[in-house]
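sanity check this fold:
=====
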Amino acid sequence: MIIPATEKVPLEKCPALVLNADFRPLSYYPLSLWCWQDAVKSVFLERVSIVSNYKRKIRSPSFQMNLPSVIALKNFIKPSENPSFTRFNVFLRDKFTCQYCGVKKDLTFDHLLPKSKGGVTDWQNVITACSTCNVRKGGRLLSASGMVLYKKPFRPTVEDLHQNGRNFPPNFLHESWMDYLYWDVELLP
């Protein structure tokens, strides 16, 4: 849902989109957002530049300012080339889909080569699976389970995860963010 700039929302629902110094979001999924307090603090500490504001002000007894909706870091943070191996990133790599049956709920992860048989917990051996398929496969090898894998697991790049993350937009998008999101998507003629 895109929130128009004219709509009044509580301060708690006014996060700032955080851009790197090159004006790209630090991350797409989860989208790089800071709460309004952290955004204002960073402005005062001169760590960020304000790119866009909400149409509302925040006030103290001696000061007032427009609430930032988009901020850019003054110092560039080099993105990691290799994403961390986390449960969330495995799910994101596999597009939050069971790699056996295609279900998108009640997800866990499964070791293709079970740990009991010497399998390791890494990108090439772990996939997203629903609980039903995980129990069905059990501690057996994939070949012995009679199950078919949709896609062979792989070590994703940060770009792979960003690309997949674009398929899962957050529930809240302020219209002032739209110029900074997905600007590297190919335009149609």
User: Anything to note?
Assistant: The first strand starts at residue 2 and ends at 3. The CA atoms of residues 55 and 179 lie 17 Å apart.
